[in-house]
Write a structure and sequence with these properties.
Length: 217
């Protein structure tokens, strides 16, 4: 099995969306044992609320759920091109009808696993998808290092918002969080919130690593 650590030496984060509590706990335990960090959601609405503030490395989602089903979650995620479009999305379902597989693929699902879950197959599928996204991120990182590190480049490659760009540029100027908050007339809590988003988007885990990436050191 590949290491569950990402390129920034933090565990890969998997969002598990499953309305059956016991099955969700079983999946969580298997993923944690394999070295992943797991975020749980009991239905589609809860998952979308989580995705407003967090960016997992992979989504594992049941199809048949009360309220917003798995198809609805996938449609909402794929509509957000800037934030979540590249996140691997794996469907879980007791439905073995090929039509459901086709429907999921057309919406942008990357894989489809049928219940009861074969955990060896589940882990192998997750590893394959994370290797794929890791190669994409490595290629983008290498391409970025060949480009001028200007605001337009950063915004294009990492999808940073204007507020995140203002904070990022001040970090490269060795400004402290308190100084940034004062210059932007916001609270330190607001700066910290944006910092978490910046870390997720740039796949870094701490401020020093982010600055090294931005300055190409």
């Amino acid at each position: 099995m590949i290491s569950a650590a990402s390129t920034s030496e933090r565990p890969y984060v998997i969002l598990c969306i499953e309305d059956e509590a016991q099955l969700r706990r079983d999946i969580r335990d298997e993923l944690i044992e394999a070295g992943y960090q797991v975020i749980e959601a009991g239905d589609g609405r809860e998952a979308l609320a989580i995705l407003e503030n967090q960016r997992p490395d992979l989504v594992l989602c049941d199809i048949s759920m009360p309220g917003l089903d798995g198809y609805g979650v996938l449609e909402a995620l794929r509509r957000n091109e800037q934030e979540h479009a590249e996140i691997p999305f794996l469907f879980l379902s007791a439905l073995g009808d090929p039509r459901h597989i086709v429907d999921g693929k057309r919406l942008g699902a990357d894989d489809y696993l049928v219940k009861p879950i074969d955990y060896d197959l589940l882990l192998a599928t997750i590893e394959a998808r994370l290797r794929q996204i890791g190669r994409i991120r490595s290629a983008r990182r290498a391409e970025l290092q060949q480009a001028a590190c200007d605001p337009g480049t950063l915004a294009r490659y990492y999808g940073l918002t204007p507020a995140e760009m203002r904070i990022t540029l001040r970090l490269t100027q060795s400004k402290t969080l308190a100084q940034i908050a004062a210059e932007l007339s916001v609270s330190r809590a607001t700066v910290a919130f944006h910092m978490r988003n910046i870390f997720q988007k740039t796949n870094t885990g701490r401020q020093a690593e982010l600055i090294c990436l931005l300055l190409k050191k």
